[in-house]
Specification:
Blueprint (H helix, E strand, L loop, with lengths): L2 H22 L3 H8 L3 E10 L5 E12 L5 E8 L4 H17 L5 E8 L7 H15 L8 E5 L5 H15 L19 H22 L6 E5 L3 H12 L3 E7 L2 E4 L6 H11 L10 E3 L1 H5 L5 E4 L18 E3 L8 H9 L3 E3 L1 H4 L2 H14 L6 H26 L7 H19 L4
Parallel strand pairs: 3-4, 3-5, 6-7, 6-10, 10-11, 11-12
Antiparallel strand pairs: 1-2, 2-4, 7-8, 8-9
The chain binds nicotinamide-adenine-dinucleotide.
The site of nicotinamide-adenine-dinucleotide has 20 residues, from α7 and β7.
Length: about 425
């Protein structure tokens, strides 16, 4: 992300906060108390490269708000990470965790690096070096990192081990998203996509009495898109279209998500699936006459430009930020329900919470129980946002996104008031 883009992301995050503060009728003092992160740590990470040179990397950990509990949020390794981006994302984690009713504040970490050009040893050195920079400020009761863009369960395992070496405390709950053998869960792989499917099902129940027989189009067939398709299919919906970066496929009678997945794994794209009626473009997919549209690929795909041509009545944001603010306003006023990303993609962090609890009680929660708890929580928070939207705001004038952020900000403000901070 360029400096301008990350500056824009931070301004966008501040705008979201300002709107929620205004909707809730809070003062400017409340806005100011929530805007800045509580702490930002910058770390310099020297790594001895395989060719003998020492290369210096830079990273950050932003701890935005701790009113509801320890900070929680992922660590990304990306060549374009900036401090502004990490700060903005830590603020968004405060709202996401609050909305998911988790006992967490918001945090985020990042290292400016392209991990794909590092050898395994260099990547391990970097991961351990980042932990050496932040370990004094994190812990199972202070700040709990997790994987994010281009970081993996293996990286979490190295970081957890470095924390043990530095502190002498072998605490599995210091980090989540770990390999199963070190306290992680296999359910994590399905968590976000499954959560998207559950949020879609609950919204469909409110709108039509159920998701059975409803038509679904999904943009993006990666981790989130595939599992959303798989579980919606199992729930009785008809997945008529899916796509990836090379294009999409359509079948009025419905696609079989697992068969499509096999073709994608074997050939690299869903477009090679031969049992579909026709191939379509990603633009056409977004404008299909379906009940439910799930953008699960990249940001800003539904904009002011194509919003007038969108026919779906329910949009569930599997990706981060696929609907722009202007399109959100336009479509919401037209009566389209948009389940916002902060709610729809909360499955990952909810699963992190289950892992953290399990680590602290000594490994007691089964995969089945984890999945049940994840589903229960997704149902509860979707209904809570729906209820808040209809009882405290005006659907048609305010979007479901307004409801989600307002509810989240309200919880954080009330926690700060209870602590005597506001
Ligand atoms: P992924 O890399 O597994 O899959 C991305 C998919 O999108 C691929 O099928 C790719 O071909 C497709 N794609 C890329 N560019 C496209 C384009 N221009 N048009 C159409 N398709 C395109 O990624 P993922 O983990 O499934 O994440 C998808 C989105 O969900 C991202 O925005 C991510 O930030 C967000 N998200 C993911 C998680 C998670 O747990 N994986 C959690 C929260 C949010």
């Amino acid at each position: 992300m360029s400096f301008t883009d990350s500056r824009r992301l931070l301004l966008e995050a501040e705008k979201i906060l300002r709107r929620a503060v205004e909707l809730l009728g809070y003062s400017e003092d409340v806005y100011n108390a929530l805007r800045l992160p509580e702490r930002v740590i910058q770390v310099k990470i020297p790594v001895r490269m395989d060719d003998g040179r020492v290369k210096v990397f830079i990273g950050w950990r932003s701890q935005h708000n701790s009113a509801l509990g320890p900070y929680k949020g992922g660590i990304r390794f990306h060549p374009a990470v900036t401090m502004e981006e990490v700060i903005a994302l830590s603020m968004m984690m405060t709202w996401k965790n609050a909305l998911a009713e988790l006992p967490y504040g918001g945090g985020k970490g990042g290292v400016k690096v392209d991990p794909h050009v590092l050898s395994k040893r260099e990547l391990e050195e970097l991961s351990r070096g980042y932990m050496r920079g932040i370990y004094k400020y994190i812990g199972p009761d202070t700040d709990i990192p997790a994987p994010d863009v281009y970081t993996s369960p293996q990286i979490m395992a190295w970081m957890m081990d470095e924390y043990y070496r530095l502190t002498g405390e072998n605490k599995l709950g210091v980090i989540t998203g770990k390999p199963k053998l070190l306290g992680g869960f296999e359910t994590r792989i399905i968590a976000t996509g499954f959560g998207v499917a559950v949020a879609a099902r609950e919204a469909a129940k409110k709108m039509w009495g159920g998701v059975e027989g409803r038509t679904v189009a999904i943009q993006g067939y990666g981790n989130v898109g595939y599992y959303a398709a798989k579980f919606l299919h199992e729930m009785g919906a008809t997945v008529v279209a899916v796509s990836d970066s090379r294009g999409g496929i359509y079948s009025s009678k419905g696609l079989n998500p697992d068969e499509v997945k096999q073709v994608k794994s074997k050939t690299g794209s869903v477009i090679n699936y031969e049992n579909a009626e026709k191939r379509i473009t990603n633009e056409e997919l977004l404008e299909l006459d379906v009940d439910i549209l799930i953008p699960a690929a990249i940001e800003y795909v539904i904009t002011e430009e194509n919003a007038p041509r969108i026919k779906a009545k329910l949009i569930v944001e599997g990706a981060n930020g696929p609907v722009t603010a202007a399109a959100d306003e336009y479509l919401s006023q037209r009566g389209v329900v948009i389940v916002p990303d902060i709610l729809a993609s909360a499955g990952g962090v909810i699963m992190s919470h289950i892992e953290w609890v399990d680590n602290r009680i000594g490994g007691w929660i089964s995969e089945e129980e984890a999945r049940r708890k994840l589903e229960e929580k997704m149902v509860r928070i979707t209904l809570a946002v729906w209820e808040f939207w209809h009882s405290k705001l005006e659907p048609g004038k305010h979007s479901m996104r307004d409801a989600a952020y307002s509810l989240a900000v309200k919880r954080v403000v009330e926690a700060m008031q209870l602590r005597g901070l506001l």
